[in-house]
């Protein structure tokens, strides 16, 4: 295919992906009550699932400090078109999140014809695993990281006379940043998988630079969480587990790649 033909093929992949995102965003826009009351504003109320589980855990462990029975802040809108703008932008973000698996599938369909047969075979299931990791990261961010951060920031005061009256845009920005950051961080095993397939990374390199990786992970956790040690640890631990999992993935991929190269070398020598 010529360069123009490639652009034409890419254009249709992009158009289909955009249509999918728009369809999901339109559905989210019309499901306003669920979108805001249940989904977005859920972590701002003490009846949220995470807080109820913490209360149950606190009762079982006789540690009442774990229970979150009050979130002391009020969400306000201070702009005339603020709620409409936030409604549109929130619906678009939800549409993008729901359409991500299909979006990645369209990108993969564009890339796949340019791969060699063995590369296609080695990358089988990529869309599935990328989507699964994205959803797991999304759920972790929404149910664990974001509520912990919101609860900490809502309860942090420098003086009892100061009330927390949070702007709606600030609250939603915090929620979406935490959730989406975790969703993309959880893609680490797949990133390592493709880098290992390309021979750009090995398990030995990852083990040597493990200490450096820990520092980077702590920095990432500090960026996407508030200055609360417990929240940072909650985010750091799963990322570290993903890093260790990625080392094993790189090891398995490295063995497979070495075996494949040895087989090709043996075939070439046999032909010679």
TrEMBL record:
Classification via InterPro entries = TatC
Q: Keyword Chaperone, does the record have it?
A: no
GO molecular function annotations of the record:
proton motive force dependent protein transmembrane transporter activity
- Is Membrane among the key words of this record? yes
Q: Record's superkingdom? A: Bacteria
Q: Which UniProt keywords apply?
A: Cell membrane, Membrane, Protein transport, Translocation, Transmembrane, Transmembrane helix, Transport
- GO cellular component entries: TAT protein transport complex
Where are the bilayer-spanning segments? 12-31, 86-105, 126-145, 171-196, 208-225
Bilayer disposition of the protein: Multi-pass membrane protein
Tell me where in or outside the cell this protein is found.
Cell membrane; Membrane
Signal peptide feature range: none
- Share what the entry says about its subunit structure, partners included: Forms a complex with TatA.
Family affiliation: Belongs to the TatC family.
- Matching HAMAP family, A to Z? TatC
Stated name of the protein: Sec-independent protein translocase protein TatC
Organism, scientific name? Hymenobacter metallilatus
Query: What gene name is listed for this protein?
Result: tatC
